[in-house]
Design brief:
Elements lengths: L6 H38 L9 E7 L2 E7 L5 H8 L18 E4 L2 E4 L12 E3 L12 H8 L9 H14 L5 H7 L10 H12 L17
Parallel strand pairs: 1-5
Antiparallel strand pairs: 1-2, 3-4, 3-5
Helix pairs in contact: 3-6, 4-6
The protein binds FE2/S2 (inorganic) cluster (FES) (2 copies).
């Protein structure tokens, strides 16, 4: 009897072998692709969210608040339209007037220029968080005593700007105050009184009277 393998048996054997190799290669490739996708997602950070509403948790005035917001919603709109905290004002809604100023991790921030979803994990302080209900912070008290508001629409933003300044620099000069408030517009022209209020809140001596022209550069 001959030991030679018939051509058809040999061909079958080669096909089976190649098929086996192909299946193994595919399995290895798919495992590697999965591992690669895992690595890419780790490197590329958070997955895209939205466009529908997603759960958002914000720490506002020391307490967590739950929201359900589309990722495109600004911090200003979240405060004003999805919470009772309407003290933060909306005027230009484009980062120009400062009426929407809040503190984010202690830093003065235009809330109309920040997405609410990006403020997660940060400490947000609004005008309502400066003093317990029914009381005034020293800056708010100084604004009242110095008559530093007329219509009051810009006032929360200016109070936040002055508060931020005094947190960083408890003894500012008049020039420091003017610079700190230069991102806040007041259509009623209360600037001289705002400067007086800021200096009074700092405990510094302030001239009894300012004129608008003295502080025209604020406008
Ligand atoms: S409303 Fe945000 S800067 Fe004017
Ligand atoms: S008090 Fe009216 S805009 Fe400033």
């Amino acid at each position: 009897m001959s030991d030679a393998v018939s051509p058809s048996a040999s061909a079958l054997s080669r096909r089976s072998f190649l098929k086996g190799i192909g299946t193994s290669a595919l399995t290895v490739a798919s495992v590697q692709a999965g591992a690669l996708a895992d690595e890419i997602s780790k490197v590329s950070g958070p997955q895209p969210q939205g466009p529908g509403a997603v759960p958002v948790t914000l720490t506002i005035n020391g307490a967590p608040r739950q929201f359900n917001l589309e990722p495109r919603v600004t911090l200003l709109d979240a405060l004003r339209y999805s919470s009772p905290l309407t003290g933060t004002k909306e005027v230009c809604d484009r980062g120009t007037c400062g009426a929407c100023s809040v503190l984010v991790d202690g830093k003065l921030t235009y809330s109309c220029m920040k997405l609410a979803i990006d403020a997660q994990g940060q400490k947000i302080t609004t005008i309502e968080g400066l003093a317990p209900v029914g009381e005034l912070s020293p800056v708010q008290q100084a604004f009242v005593e110095c008559d530093a508001l007329m219509c009051g629409f810009c006032t929360p933003g200016l109070v936040m700007a002055v508060t931020s300044l005094l947190n960083e620099n408890p003894h500012p000069t008049e020039a420091d105050v003017r610079h700190a408030c230069s991102g806040n517009l007041c259509r009623c022209g209360t600037y001289p009184h705002v400067v007086r209020a800021a200096l009074k809140a700092s405990g510094a001596e302030a001239p009894a009277q300012f004129t608008v022209t003295d502080y025209g550069s604020l406008a």
